[in-house]
Amino acid sequence: MSKQYLSCGSADNAHPTDIFSLAVTDKQILSASGVSSLKVHSTTDSDFPLVQSISGAHRVGCHQVVANGNGSRAVSVGFGGEIRVWSCHNGTWSEDETASVGSAGSADIWAIALSEDGQYLAGASQDGHIRVWDLSACGEQIRDYETKGSFGTCIDLSADGRFIASGHENGSVYIFSTETGRMPFSLSGLVKPVRAVAFSPRGKFLAAAGDSKVIVLYDTVSGEQVANLSGHSAWVLSLSWSHTGEYLLSGSFDGKVKVWSIDTRACVTTHSEMESVVWNVKWLPKTGKSERFAAAGANRSISFYREATCG
Amino acid sequence: MIPVIAVIMISYVLGQVQQYIDETLASALDELSTLDGRPAITLRRKSRKASLFINPTNGALENGGTETHITYTWPGRNTHEAWKFSIVFRVLAVIADAIDTGLMISKRDIYYSDPSCFKNQKVVDTIIDDLAYTIGVDRSALNVDAAAKGLVAGYYRLLRKSGEIMDAQSPAKDSLVPSSHHVGDIDLSDASWVLIIEKEAVYRRLVRSNYHTRAAAGKGILVTGKGYPDLSTRAFIRKLFENSRHLDRVLPFYALVDSDPDGMAIMSTYKYGSMAHTSQNRRLNVPCLWWLGLRTSDVVTGASSNDAEALIRLTSRDRQKIIAMLLNNPVCAAEGPELEWRMELQQMLMLNLKAEIEILYDRNRGLEGWIDWKMASPLPQQNN
Q: Do B296 and B354 contact (CB within 8 A), yes or no?
């Protein structure tokens, strides 16, 4: 069964360089790129207007920005390794004076994830450590998991905050329990660099993908591989689950964006409008009838799509 | 008319150097002949950690920073100062001698005249740069040349200042980059392109296969500075560039470098100049230099599953070097002239990968076919 997603607008030339990361809140989308400023576009207006430009955020550029669910807090990490925390008041973002990242800014952190309430920041470091900081307690480091030392390329926190998953350059994927501080699973299956990991909304599955071009689904209870989604012909760089957990979105190095049905384990739609790398894809909150998603990368614009509702 | 002006300029510069040497030596002698005299020498120096910017008129990387003065006296406060004083005078004496006799000497010659005294080559290099800057002349006006390191092959004809013509057009023959001091004009009427290559190994392969004779884009010139180029290689390429402007067509200059931070820094050195010795850049930069490759995307998109070893992970030094370039080199700044270079450096960080030109050897078209294909794509608009 195929599904149609139609282009429903774009924030053209949102940045002067590649857009590396998107973060979605209930009303806005934040984007980070190779220049110093972060951009904020409204997703409640069908024209996706620019509502704020946070200038001077990261001098050498920013490769990842994350936000918590209700859109009260965001965290960004720059190419230089510096981490900044932002808070939102009445739709306007500013540096969060109440939060501190403590030692996180000097820990060679590459990938980050933020808990739903915005209190905990998890990070994967270049030397393969997975750490957690409490932003409300002066950035105190509360967890430090050691892995085999391979570059931590991506990280995700489950929605309930109980698990952390990390992906590494050597193909390793790990799941950690934040409660016990233990590592229940070292997941097998990928041998090439992993570039994205994502928990399904209720935490039943973990999706992981990267240079092997296949998306692997793991059962988070058993640690078993339950599906291989193949179809991308280039490296998969990002993954995002729809809010119901029915669909998985993926973006790849050759500019393709795919939507996968978890029920049928099949690709239901492929978009190939972009000719060069798609760095990040994200579902937007559901407003009205149809699901929407955003994709961004080397074409410097944020493209929006919505599900075609027929009849 | 022009040669007359040139002769006047040369003798003016020579006079300036001669005058500086005479005055410095005379005042030191005066001091020495008085009781409690303290001979001293003061060098001017552009502060190294300064504000670099790209001069919009000539496209060169320049230094807007402040100037510092540093004075060494004899016997000085400590042995270090005494040593500094004596080596500056030794270098000055060698230069005075070279100018007297009209011979060119190399920085290596000076160092090897007394290695235990100078300790290392860099000490000599720094003093020479400081002296040239203090006097306000080009290093070559001190009759000091770096020993040529670069290699060149292809279709150009040198008209030496002596009037002799050196024809480089015999195929499969390459030579050391000639000292620009001895080169008058260069006849480029048979060349259709100039390819600047980072690595000697790649250069040698192209020379062996006679690429400069049989490229799809026509006959051309291959040059390498063997890594970071020295001043004489840059001066020669600049001379090629200046002479190309007399042609009634555009002679494209291409750079072929590794997809890694050093490759990008080397290309930046050719096009904008060196970050360490900014005072020479306006005479050495090649503002119209087109980046042929290698780009990470060239490698990733061409990557079949058995070619994964072509991609190499960045070392932590590579990552630090990229971040330093993004921070300090105005060429790669967000507001700078080479946004594409900035993107390439950031893409390396994103993917944590780099690649070497040699990976093209095994591609379908081979290195030569790949260059043919890249040169066939249209040149982007350049401002200069």
A: yes
Q: Which residues pair with A173 in a beta bridge?
A: A167, A187
Q: Tally the residues of chain A.
A: 311
Nearest to B300 among A34, A126, A235 (CB): A235
Tokens 């290309």: give the residue. B267
- Nearest of A306, A238, A249 to residue A278 by alpha carbon: A238
Site from B346, B347, B352 to mutate, A interface, most A CB atoms within 10 angstroms: B346
Please name the member of B301, B308, B342 whose beta carbon is closest to the beta carbon of A34: B342
Split at pLDDT 50, 70, 90, the class of B8 is low
Stated as kind and residue range, the H or E segment containing A122 is strand A120-125
- Domains of chain A plus CATH, in order, are 5-307 (2.130.10.10)
Using an 8 Å CB-CB cutoff, list chain B residues near A59.
326-327
Q: Which of B12, B20, B111, B112 is flagged as catalytic?
A: B112
With a cut of 50, say whether residue B1 has pLDDT above it.
no
Residue A60 contacts B where some CB pair is shorter than 8 Å: yes
Segments in B102-168 forming alpha helices (H): 107-113, 115-118, 121-135
Shortest distance between the Cα of A34 and any Cα of chain B, in A, equals 7
Decide yes or no: CATH 3.40.50.150 for domain B151-376: no
CB contact under 8 A, A60 and B308: no
Please name the fold of domain B1-142: Arc Repressor Mutant, subunit A (1.10.10)
The CA angle B332-B338-B339, to the nearest 5 degrees, is: 85
CA distance B296 to chain A (A): 12
Say how far apart CA A26 and CA A42 lie, in whole Å.
Answer: 10
> Which residues of chain B does A38 touch, with a Cβ-Cβ cutoff of 8 Å?
none
Question: Would you state the structure tokens that stand for residue B335, as one six-digit string?
Answer: 């507001």
Q: What is the DSSP letter of B158?
A: E
- Which residues have a Cβ under 8 Å from the Cβ of B204 and sit 6 or more positions away? none
Structure token digits, residue A106:
């000097």
Average pLDDT on A39-46 reads 93
Write the burial class of residue A108 (CB in 10 Å: 0-12 exposed, 13-18 middle, 19+ buried): middle
Instruction: Count CA within 13 A, CB hemisphere, residue A91.
Output: 9
**Which value does ipTM take for this structure?**
0.94
Residue A180, class by beta-carbon neighbours within 10 Å (0-12 exposed, 13-18 middle, 19+ buried)? exposed
**Nearest-by-CA chain B residue for A82:** B323
Residues of chain B with CATH 3.40.1360.10: 151-376
Tell me whether residues A169 and B352 touch, CB distance under 8 A. yes
- Token pair for B354: 């780099």
- Is B112 part of the annotated catalytic residue set? yes
Give yes or no for A238 touching B (CB within 8 A).
no
Interface with chain A: mutation pick from B340, B347, B351, highest number of A CBs within 10 Å: B351
Residues B122, B104: Cα–Cα separation, whole Å: 19
How many beta-carbon pairs below 8 A join chains A and B? Answer: 60
Please check whether residue A157 is in contact with residue A203, taking contact to mean a CB–CB distance below 8 angstroms: no
Q: Where in chain B is the domain with CATH 1.10.10?
A: 1-142
For the stretch A142-191, pLDDT in tens is 999 989 899 999 999 999 999 999 999 999 999 999 988 788 788 877 88
Closest-CA distance, B326 to chain A, in angstroms, reads: 6
What's phi and psi for A285, nearest 5 deg?
-60, 145
Number of C-beta neighbours around residue B230 at 10 A: 18
Residue of A79, A194, A237 to mutate when probing chain B, most B C-beta within 10 A? A79
